[in-house]
Amino acid sequence: MLARGIEYDVVTAYVARRLEQASPSTVLYEVKLLRRMFRLARRAKKADSIPDWG
C-alpha cells in the first residue's frame, strides 16, 4: 500500500483487526510509530501532509 492510501478508515480498520490479536497498548504503539513515520517523511519532504487520525 502506498502512503497516500493510508487514511482514517484504513487505520481504524487496522486497529479493529489488530485488537483481536494484540493488546491495546501494542496497537497504540504501532499507530504511534505510523504517525512518527509520516512526521519523518514530512520533514524529509517525502510526504506533503500528515493524515489526521483523530
Q: Give start-end ranges of low-pLDDT stretches.
A: none
How many strands appear in the DSSP assignment? Answer: 0
For the termini, the CA-CA separation is: 21 Å
Average pLDDT = 91
Reading the helices and strands in chain order gives: HH
- Supply Rg: 12 Å
β-strand percent reads under 5%
Shape: elongated
The multimeric state of the shown protein is single chain
How many domains would you count in the coordinates?
1
The share of residues in helices is 55-70%
By helix and strand content, what is the structural category?
A: mainly alpha
Number of helices: 2
Outline the biggest β-sheet. Answer: none
Give a description of the structure:
The protein starts with 7 loop residues before the first helix and ends in an 11-residue tail after the last helix. The mean pLDDT is 91. Helices cover 57% and strands 0% of the residues. It is elongated. The protein has one domain. The protein is mostly helical.
Characteristic key phrases:
54 residues; mainly alpha
Q: What order do the helices and strands come in, and which of them pair?
A:
Blueprint: H1 8-18, H2 24-43
In short:
The chain has 54 residues and is mainly alpha-helical.
